[in-house]
Amino acid sequence: MTELQRDNKADVAQGPYLRGERIQLRRPSMKDTNYVFHWERDDEVWRYDIHRPYSRTMGEFLPTFERNYIRGNGRQFWFIIEDENRIPIGTITYFNVDNRLGQAELGLGLGDKTRWGQGYGPEAIRTLVRYIFTLPGIRRVYAETALANHPSRRAFEKAGFTEVGQIYDPRSTGEPWVLLEIWKSHTM
Fold first, then answer.
1. C-alpha dihedral over 53, 57, 59, 64, to 10 degrees?
2. Is 138:23 a contact under the CB 8 Å cutoff?
3. Which of 47, 120, 184, 187 has the most beta carbons within 10 angstroms of its beta carbon?
4. Quick count: other Cβ atoms within 10 Å of Cβ 80?
């Protein structure tokens, strides 16, 4: 169990609150359920991820949301992205933390389509990367995205990530994916 998850009641978001210039990242709470459920069910938001939606109904989604987003599973750490008016606009997460290799994977989902192309994604990425690099031993953060997902690739590039090359993602339909990375030495 991590510091982020300890004492986390199902309806209360626990810190840290990570701040960028315009955005804030905070732990999810039950009040975020409707936002996240609708974002995950939006075909346009997740057109590059064949594993969405996770749930067909809110009833199916609630236990998953509470278990994974609120209480945490000890392997994936979720944040809600809020804009400058504290309105939730998406989610960002880090996972696959490998202390032996000193790395973690990052994933972004900007669910509010009216905020696309306005720099919120790169700012959220930079904000979470700064936090991840404060974790003991983490030297590299990486991300994987569909080759065809140009908006995601641009957001990571604007946040300082470099494209390493194409990879095969077994979750995909066989379409190529891209591996991106940023090293702690390049951000400090």
1. 0
2. no
3. 120
4. 22
